[in-house]
């Protein structure tokens, strides 16, 4: 699939790039047998393991880094690996557009290390003369990579060296400063300097932050939102082409990315930071306090330097007020700090249900049927109903009023504080510094989509599924919001603190343990404590960015639930894991087929996209 975020001259050739990616996946399957060999050998862009790209120096540290680089698994979905695929696809398009030229004389280099007893070889063309580092060049941008950075070629050159430049759009001509060359992968990393000529997709009037093009947070503020969503659909599409190792016929068309209701003011958690005094990290150096107010904010793009950020427009109003408050506190108390620190900014909501008058009697609205405070259910409902919102909203709080309730939103910064968050009428409490989805505006739409797709479409299997297992359940988001659909629901997590939090959230939402249960289970025993029949069970999984490990996937295939809903914050590792389930690698013959794949835009203005894949078990032949 071609991306609408490609420049006009590249868009015409985009179908060829998609075909190339598909053929590469098929070739990878033909060359190796099974997931283990594919992981170790590779469907890599250059056909070999990545060579070491370290700097100068030697000793044990270098050897250790060399080993980790060389042994990195392609299917980890790292930004480096994702970028390499996009670079090679663009180079292929570039070569197709250039006049035919004789192939350069190549030398053959024997790589250290062997694969299956055979020496690895790599064909290398004569070294190309590239611009000196830290010099400025003009780059014509052809595409946006799945990492969010622009990809282009030096203006006026026929070279196939790709330049990776942030904060640009296809069609732009940008001035960029070359920082380093990655010759093994035929690309160079560059800093954005300025726009020489804006392309058709770029409109800097859309930019809503004075730190854009400096801060490492947002990448797409110059693009309209439909273009951002289209690009994120292409990210999911390329993830399955490049990382699933599946025949393209086994992957359905990627659905349109579902957008966020808010494109700014959506983040309910931010963590700005500041550095300590020079040398504060050295063990034997006497501690000294900060001598001036530090720069407080986020890292500059491509730098470890902290960029001083006074305000962040993607934060919610409450979080932005909290950021202002905490900056003022640090400005007063900076002399008390002998090292750097990260500042926690987490929105928390206190809900006050409204009362309505019906037939002369005071009755609460439907919203009051749920427990509405962060206290345990033992607190009396009468006390909750009598509680009223403050007559005047505190200076550091935000008041949001609807027909059913009044919400007072504040920003928590204490590490041990408990935050409260509503998704429709569901209440969730979590430690303020723990993980929970950071865009509340999209969560009602997101959880409703899962509710609509957790069951099979109308057919013979729909009524058979009676049970839910929520693996990686955390504080119970899916177990609680889906429990009403099932006879029994069980959330499983290896973190006991998360399980205790989930149990509390179930009580806050009036869900009995018989309907909504949580178990703390060790990873090797994840499914052994659940007695649900696999034929009547759906499993929802929402792992961390690294995806599922082989042990978990083996357990899942051994259990063999009728249906799987895979939610992921990294569509590249999701594609890898879905490929394992579809092929049935390491299982007893259990395999799955993909029903649908869709992206959710939890973080507008950035290159991130969340993925949801729905799979059905393939029935074994009699």
Describe this structure in words.
GO terms for molecular function: tRNA (uracil(54)-C5)-methyltransferase activity, S-adenosyl methionine-dependent. It catalyses: uridine(54) in tRNA + S-adenosyl-L-methionine = 5-methyluridine(54) in tRNA + S-adenosyl-L-homocysteine + H(+). InterPro entries: MeTrfase_TrmA_AS, MeTrfase_TrmA_CS, NA-bd_OB-fold, SAM-dependent_MTases_sf, tRNA_(uracil-5-)_MeTrfase, U5_MeTrfase_fam. Keywords: Methyltransferase, S-adenosyl-L-methionine, Transferase, tRNA processing. It is a single chain. With 622 residues, this protein is an alpha+beta fold. Among the domains are: 73 residues, Nucleic acid-binding proteins (OB fold (Dihydrolipoamide Acetyltransferase, E2P), Beta Barrel), CATH 2.40.50.140; 220 residues, 3-Layer(aba) Sandwich (Rossmann fold), CATH 3.40.50.150; 107 residues, no CATH class. It is 25% helix and 24% strand. Helix 2 runs parallel beside helix 6. The chain is globular and about 65 Å long. The N terminus is likely disordered.
What's a concise summary of this model?
The chain is of the alpha+beta class. It is built from 13 helices and 26 strands. The two termini are 38 Å apart.
Biggest sheet, in brief? 7 strands, mixed
How many individual β-strands? Answer: 26
CATH class of the domain at 230-264 and 434-618: Alpha Beta
- CATH-scheme architecture of the domain at 230-264 and 434-618: 3-Layer(aba) Sandwich
The CATH superfamily of the domain at 230-264 and 434-618 is known as: Vaccinia Virus protein VP39
For this structure, the CATH topology of the domain at 230-264 and 434-618 is Rossmann fold
Shape: globular
The unreliable regions are 1-43, 46-75, 104-124, 357-385
Write down the overall mean pLDDT: 82
What's the alpha carbon Rg, rounded to whole Å? 27 Å
Strand content: 15-25%
Q: Specify the number of helices.
A: 13
Secondary-structure content class: alpha+beta
Strand order of the largest sheet: 22-21-20-23-24-26-25
Euclidean distance between termini CA atoms:
38 Å
Question: Helicity level, as a percent range?
Answer: 10-25%
């Amino acid at each position: 699939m071609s991306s609408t975020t490609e420049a006009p001259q590249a868009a015409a050739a985009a179908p060829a790039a998609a075909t190339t990616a598909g053929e590469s996946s098929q070739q990878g399957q033909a060359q190796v047998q099974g997931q283990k060999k594919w992981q170790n050998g590779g469907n890599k862009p250059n056909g070999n393991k990545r060579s070491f790209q370290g700097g100068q120096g030697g000793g044990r540290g270098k050897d250790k880094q060399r080993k980790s680089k060389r042994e990195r698994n392609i299917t980890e979905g790292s930004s480096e690996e994702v970028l390499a695929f996009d670079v090679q696809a663009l180079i292929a398009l570039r070569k197709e557009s250039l006049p035919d030229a004789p192939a350069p004389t190549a030398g053959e280099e024997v790589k250290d290390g062997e694969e299956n007893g055979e020496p690895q070889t790599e064909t290398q063309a004569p070294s190309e003369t590239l611009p000196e580092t830290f010099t400025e060049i003009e780059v014509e941008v052809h595409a946006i990579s799945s990492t969010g950075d622009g990809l282009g070629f030096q203006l006026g050159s026929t070279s196939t060296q790709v330049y990776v430049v942030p904060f640009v759009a296809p069609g732009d001509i940008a001035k960029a400063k070359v920082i380093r060359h990655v010759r093994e992968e035929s690309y160079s990393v560059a800093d954005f300097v300025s726009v020489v000529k804006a392309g058709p997709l770029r409109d800097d009037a859309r930019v809503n932050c004075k730190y854009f093009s400096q801060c490492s947070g947002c990448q797409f503020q110059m693009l309209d939102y439909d273009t951002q969503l289209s690009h994120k659909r292409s990210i999911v599409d390329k993830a399955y082409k490049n990382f699933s190792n599946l025949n393209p016929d086994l992957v359905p068309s990627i659905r349109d990315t579902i957008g966020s209701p808010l494109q700014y003011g959506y983040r309910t958690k931010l963590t700005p930071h500041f550095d300590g005094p020079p040398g504060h990290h050295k063990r034997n150096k006497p501690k000294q306090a900060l001598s001036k107010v530090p720069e407080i904010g986020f890292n500059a793009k491509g730098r470890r330097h902290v960029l001083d950020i006074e305000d962040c427009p993607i934060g919610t109003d409450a979080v932005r007020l909290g950021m202002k408050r905490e900056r003022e506190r640090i400005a007063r108390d900076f002399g008390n700090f002998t090292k750097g620190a990260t500042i926690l900014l987490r929105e928390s909501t206190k809900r006050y249900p409204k009362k309505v008058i019906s037939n002369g009697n005071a009755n609460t609205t439907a919203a009051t049927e749920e427990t509405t405070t962060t206290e345990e259910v033992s607190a009396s409902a009468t006390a909750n109903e009598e509680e009223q919102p403050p007559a005047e909203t505190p200076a550091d709080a935000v008041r949001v009023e609807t027909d059913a309730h009044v919400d007072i939103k504040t920003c928590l910064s204490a590490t041990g504080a408990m935050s409260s968050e509503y998704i429709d009428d569901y209440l969730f409490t979590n430690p303020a510094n723990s993980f929970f989805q950071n865009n509340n505006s999209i969560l009602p739409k997101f959880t409703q989509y899962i509710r609509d797709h957790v069951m099979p479409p109308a057919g013979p299997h729909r009524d058979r599924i009676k049970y839910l297992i929520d693996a990686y359940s955390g504080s119970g988001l899916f177990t609680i919001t889906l429990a009403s659909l099932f006879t029994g629901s069980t959330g499983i997590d290896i973190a006991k603190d998360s399980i205790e939090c989930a149990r509390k959230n179930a009580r806050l939402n009036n869900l009995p343990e018989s309907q909504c249960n949580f178990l703390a289970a060790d990873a090797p025993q994840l499914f052994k404590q659940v007695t649900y029949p696999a034929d009547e069970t759906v499993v929802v999984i929402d792992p961390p960015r690294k995806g599922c490990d082989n042990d978990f996937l083996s357990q899942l295939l051994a259990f063999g639930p009728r249906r799987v809903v895979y939610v992921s914050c990294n569509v590249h590792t999701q594609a890898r894991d879905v490929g394992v389930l579809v092929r049935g690698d390491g299982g007893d013959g259990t395999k799955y087929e993909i029903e649908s794949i869709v992206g959710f835009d939890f973080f507008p203005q950035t290159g991130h996209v969340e993925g949801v894949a729905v799979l059905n078990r393939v029935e074994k032949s009699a």
